Q: What sequence folds into this?
């Protein structure tokens, strides 16, 4: 008997699947919960962007040549 193949989920695949999901199947409360979860993810992404920008700015100031 063949064993199931473990496939790795590609980066961004779950997000792409979520954007194609049929929203007709959800009730109002479920859609509001979905929006809240997506807003939390947006906030998390923005915080990560800010951390990356801060880290980049710190590295740039450390390694930049004095004027």
A:
């Amino acid at each position: 008997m063949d064993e199931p193949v473990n496939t790795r989920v590609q980066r961004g695949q779950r997000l792409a699947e979520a954007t194609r999901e049929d929203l007709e199947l959800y009730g109002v409360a479920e859609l509001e919960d979905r929006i809240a979860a997506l807003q939390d993810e947006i906030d998390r992404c923005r915080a990560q962007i800010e951390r990356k920008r801060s880290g980049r700015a710190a590295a740039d100031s450390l390694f930049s040549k004095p004027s």
Observations:
- Residues 21 and 46 are 24 Å apart (CA to CA).
- The two ends are 69 Å apart (CA to CA).
- The chain has a mean pLDDT of 91.
